[in-house]
Specification:
The structure is a homodimer of 753-residue chains. Chain A has 753 residues and is α+β, with helices and mostly antiparallel strands. Among the domains of chain A are: 11-139 and 209-293 and 672-725, no CATH class; 404-552, no CATH class. Chain A has 26 helices and 19 strands. In chain A, strands 1, 2, 3, 4, 5, 6, 7, 8, 9, 10 and 11 form an eleven-stranded antiparallel sheet that branches. The first copy, chain A, has a seven-stranded antiparallel sheet with strand order 13-12-17-18-19-16-15. Chain A is globular. Chain A starts with a helix and ends in a 10-residue tail after the last helix. Chains A and B meet through β14, β15 and α23 of A and β14, β15 and α23 of B.
Chain lengths: 753, 753
């Protein structure tokens, strides 16, 4: 997910999105590099940095010239795109796209009904006209160019002292650069910030607005193992989906229309059936979202002791609420699936992360290392003059921010989760922003964002379930009601007072207040939303209690927003000093992930999760059958079971000639592990071999490495990939996708499996 | 546990006992050998058989003469004893005994109170006078001699046609042999039946009645991992306890008395700190309870499709009931621990067994193999004449038995679980048996059994919790009320009718009926129990509704009992024919386990539980710390954590000189896996090395091998052992047991750890 989508992303992209939610909640949390990045496996490298590590790449096994790998026009990276916050890649001349199933859930859900549940049954378009529109919020972004613009920011900030002014300068310059870049009307641009403000890069992307679902496996393949196996090894998940990008007949980006034609990308990846084995060189190219590998000990301490435990509690409560609500009806089950799955996934992630955090004892190690860095600074007059004061100020500010964030956190949960509250909050904010000149509007609310914003509102409205929304709101009002005096929210207090929620009557009062807020539900109507979307501040009126409640909150939201901007301005000016000190001490490093295109490389390799257990790095069809119990999430469809048995019988008889059979495994590869360094946003990334050919899809990290966004543990951090041969086999043997295999250059094997 | 204890064992030995309960419930279920026992790992060999497999033993690594291993007087087997249904062994000249912690739970519980909970805190007697009596039901049985008596049974059965008469003949002869054998007043004898009646052996044991608890580790060591890790690998459980046997000053078995002195065994095991490593030869000597490796396909089919699923349902319901009841008070928690743990353990076992059963597809394989055996029989006139008719009759009878067992099963659960019902049932049955001449009394109710019977009643009374008893009874009456017309229990029907439990009023009626049954609770009083225990049939009177209810059930119980005897008589005459056919076809085989002394041998070896996971066969102190979360069941006591860190620090510094440190592991061994073939009853068995020295304690099997009682899978069946070095290390470093180490021949290491 990009910085932009942090404010505008729909529920569809909740996995990535929630990660951003936490990023925002934890704006003052982090972890510093434990050692200079000297190992092959650690590091999410910018394409421009690859030439600096060419030796490492070659040594690890890369067979491609580094210059080819770096080339955004003709190299394999040209085929690596951003699809709604996930990564994806082109695999045919006709714009066929491969990504993860879990990145396609929104699109699949959009095309499902209670009676025709594509999430459950899967989907394969037999011809182009059967391909299903992924919806107005779906976007393919192709990175065309990255331009370093740090100098312009340094110049603009020269002499600026006030934090808010600094923020406005940075923000204004970003908007100006973006506006120029997007002037052609078909581009999507952003200024990516590296290392908290040390470096700025203008990223120019082509923005395709008509994206269609081509294929998704049935749930029992695409989500095989479900929540139980999520983050786990050994894994047997067919986590893939196929899309196609469409453009106008003129070849330019266009809104969805039947007359559109498939996009013809400049570059697409070769899909290889050569496969991998233990030790194989692999690399992952994609758009990793956020890492926190260069943070201060005080941020680390806070994440471990305060922020994550608090987040975990809230997530666990919300998941329970949604699970109960999903039992009410088949329709509620479908509508709430994506939100519940996203929250549950993030809960498991947060728990694992906290667990890993504690086990790594990173806070203690980092505290020691930070003290050593400060000692090293103190040894030299120039270093003292350069770093001491900025570091002191940074520490003081971060501590202050931790002290005052509670109210903003509760408000953020409230304004983001219940569909009607979020809808009201978005529309209300937009109404105010509309009054400003476009370049002064908040990012995410500028004219360039309106179509996407509206698309997402529409998409979100489709997931609205009144009872679930209300239950979440009851829970979040209870949270607000638990805030200490200095952090209380006056508007919430007034609402609760009005409905008699005091002392022993709190619960009944909250229920009455929520019933009141949901008594009109006008925001559930398309017409109302459209009217309010178009309305400016003056015409923005309604008798809907929900809207009135959210409108009353706007002054506080503005106040908090301004404080965030001040903080951001301060951090942008001061955090780079810390990074500079680290570079000064350790030399060049890869920057933290920031949703820009990166490359990580490593090897196919197992690991030991704990004493007396050794994981080997590949799974196969045999393991799929081994896990089968007949009950979800371990229910292999009968046709797939039959196909596996057929395939294995032929292998045993020596009659299997298909290129996607792995002789070493005696079966077809399903998933594999690698030492690559990935995170959220990398989902769906192509896994490339030494020649740059597609051999897998990154789809998960392992449980033991959940703290890897903060602290990279070489021994236990692994990425989990779909073996692309599983997709090829399944399309051919089970899912009726031979025409798609043909399109990817894999014609019918001469003899059948 | 022995055949005798099947009828008389207390709740203390529930683990073994429930297994027998199921054995009884499944009297018509089983599985036949899938292949002749040609592999080293499979087989629970009778001492007398060892000379026949001497070559195999030597090849596997045994360094002891087979004759020494067979010798029940001077060999290591002379130190291997039966302790309350578990196995144990002498480890000092003063009668010190080592077994599992889970075999000591009853004794520990008996010596615990809510305020001094030894289960939680552990216990180490600092001197002999501190050792705590394990209670009146506790027995040490030392096997002195095994005598083949098959000829006498063949002679007695000659010409007997009637099933009940056959049973009576066998039963009468057994009692007569036992009576003669026990004439010295200090022996415990039994006639063990092999292969369902193919062979009879008179087992002569010395019976020690004063057993005392010497040491138990705290729960957080002895039950580390709790239910979560139970049956699992990797494992880190200190599942050991120490006892001591006492005798009168004359050296003869005596009732518990302060004047008693430690028993001096003829033989005790050498405790070795040499340890094991992958590949080491190990053997387990002990008293495995029951296996079903030679059963008919129709028995297998029934176990998989009917019996186990039914048992699992009932166990799961009962565990839930007890868990709820345990929350009521600290006292209920302690009193119900053993029963709940036993049922939960058996539930997990049954689920795993059923799972393994299904995965093994043993039923299909066995059906095929049985057909082949029948084909082989049909090829030859003599074989036809010998086997055909007995096999036909056996199949017909087993099928008939399956058809009529439901009522007996429900009645059995009811009369065994609630403490008051079980007490009433025992006393009522005894009152009738008392009227008979002693040799005609049922086994378990003869004069020789009275003291133990009374001890167990007393022990059981200590676990009585009214509310829990009632809840179980409500549940079991509901089961009885669900029986079909032909299987209904008239006495239960009358009770329910009386309290208006009909149609929609069933639940309220059952509650009223149970309240009625528990309205007097006279059986909770020691005085009443003692009076009724001594009363004959005529004096056996009471106004207690519970007793009246159970007395009314006696005619039905007698009827069912007689039918069981007829069935047993029939099976004893016909099952041997099947075993004989198998021997005829495959040659000599080890017999099914029957609680007699057996030896199994194999190697220390890991395994792969499923695709992409490899388990290595040893765990260490490092893994204990790795699992530590601070929350039960993963809460290493602070003193133990400190000791582990101290030990590891010394190892790292090269200063560790203690003999119990394993250089290969870089730590102290905690648990290990072997390929030995074991089952319930083997718990606490000494694990011996090639020289016959004690290197471990068998305490569990792995989850993947839960079906091994029925079908032995060489690839995945493993036994789990405590590494005896963990006990030595813990006694020295954590638990203040240096005096016990001294007694076991492990004086203080010259330099401390």
């Amino acid at each position: 997910m990009s910085t932009v989508s942090l404010f505008a992303a729909g529920l569809t992209h909740l996995r990535a999105n929630l990660r951003s939610l936490l990023v925002a909640a934890l704006v003052c949390v982090s972890l510093q590099l434990l050692a200079p990045p000297s190992h092959a496996d650690e590091g999410m490298w910018m394409p421009a940095q690859l030439s600096q590590i060419a030796g490492q790449l070659t040594k690890a096994g890369l067979k491609l010239p580094t210059a080819t790998l770096q080339d955004l026009k003709k190299g394999p990276l040209a085929a690596v795109i951003n699809l709604n916050g996930c990564t994806a890649s082109f695999v045919s001349a006709d714009g066929l796209i491969v990504t993860n199933h879990h990145c396609a859930v929104g699109a699949i859900q959009r095309n499902s009904t209670a009676s025709a549940n594509l999430l459950e049954a899967g989907f394969t378009a037999k011809k182009r006209t059967d391909e299903r529109w992924a919806g107005p919020g779906s976007r393919v972004l192709i990175t065309l160019k990255e331009t370093e613009v740090t100098g312009q920011f340094r110049a603009a900030l020269k002499g600026v002292k006030d934090d808010l002014a600094a923020f406005e300068k940075v923000d204004g310059l970003k908007k100006q650069l973006i506006k120029t870049c997007e002037a052609d009307g078909q581009s999507r641009c952003r200024v990516a910030t590296y290392d908290g403000g040390a470096r700025y890069v203008l990223v120019h992307q082509l923005d395709l607005r008509d994206v269609r679902l081509v294929h998704a496996p049935p749930r029992a393949i695409g989500v095989y193992g479900g929540d139980i196996d999520n983050w786990m090894w050994p894994r047997h998940t067919g986590d893939w989906a196929l899309f196609r990008a469409y453009v106008g007949k003129d070849g330019r980006p266009a809104d969805h229309a039947n007359t559109n034609v498939p996009f013809r990308p400049k570059k697409w990846l070769t899909v290889s059936a050569q496969g991998v084995k233990a030790g194989s060189y692999v690399m992952v190219a994609g758009y990793p979202g956020r890492t926190y590998r260069y943070r201060l000990p005080l941020e680390l301490k806070d994440a471990e002791a305060v922020s994550y435990p608090r987040t975990i509690k809230i997530l666990a409560d919300l998941v329970t609420i949604l699970e109960t609500q999903q039992k009410a009806s088949a329709s509620a089950r479908v509508k709430l699936t994506s939100l519940r799955a996203g929250l549950a996934n993030y809960l498991k992630y947060s728990r694992g992360l906290l667990d890993g955090f504690r086990k790594s004892q990173a806070t203690a190690a980092e505290t020691k290392r930070y003290a050593a860095l400060k000692g090293w600074i103190a040894q030299d007059a120039i270093r003292r003059a350069t770093y001491e004061r900025p570091l002191q100020r940074l520490e003081a500010r971060l501590t202050e921010m931790q002290g005052r964030r509670r109210r903003a956190e509760v408000l953020r949960w409230m304004l983001r989760l219940p569909v009607l509250v979020r809808t009201a909050a978005t529309l209300d904010w937009l109404a105010t922003e509309r009054e400003k000149p476009d370049e002064k509007r908040d990012r995410g609310y500028q004219k360039r964002d309106w179509a996407r914003l509206q698309g997402r509102l529409e998409q979100r409205a489709r997931t609205y379930v009144k009872a679930a929304d209300q239950e979440m709101m009851v829970y979040l009002l209870r949270q607000a009601n638990g805030l200490p005096g200095s952090a209380r929210i006056a508007v919430v207090d007034a609402l609760l007072k009005k409905f008699g929620a005091k002392g022993s009557k709190t619960e009944a009062g909250i229920s009455r207040a929520v019933a009141h807020l949901y008594s009109k539900q006008t925001l559930a109507k398309d017409k109302t939303r459209k009217k309010l979307f178009a309305a400016g501040r003056k015409k923005f009126k309604s008798r809907d209690p929900m809207l009135k409640f959210v409108m009353a909150l706007q002054p506080l939201r503005r106040k908090i927003d301004e404080q965030h901007k001040r903080d951001a301005g301060f951090l942008a000016a001061h955090r780079p000093a810390y990074l500079a000190a680290l570079r000064d001490r350790f030399g060049e490093m890869y920057p933290d992930a920031n949703s820009t295109l990166r490359v990580t490389f490593g090897n196919v390799k197992g690991y030991s999760p704990r004493e007396s257990i050794q994981y080997t790095p590949q799974t196969s069809l045999a393991g799929v059958l081994e896990k089968h119990t007949g009950k979800a999430p371990f229910d292999v469809p009968p046709s797939a079971r039959e196909a596996i048995r057929r395939t294995h019988a032929k292998i045993r008889q020596g009659r299997a000639t298909s290129p996607w059979i792995d002789k070493g495994l005696g079966s077809v590869g399903v998933n594999f592990l690698s030492t690559c360094d990935t995170t959220g946003g990398n989902s769906g990334s192509p896994t490339l071999d030494a020649q740059g050919r597609l051999v897998g899809l990154l789809f998960d990290g392992n449980y033991e490495a959940m703290a890897s966004d903060w602290v990279f543990d070489r021994v236990k951090t692994r990425s989990i990939h779909v073996d692309i041969r599983y997709l090829l086999w399944a399309l051919h043997e089970v899912l009726g996708g031979q025409h798609l295999l043909n399109e990817m250059g894999h014609g019918t094997p001469k003899r059948s499996l």
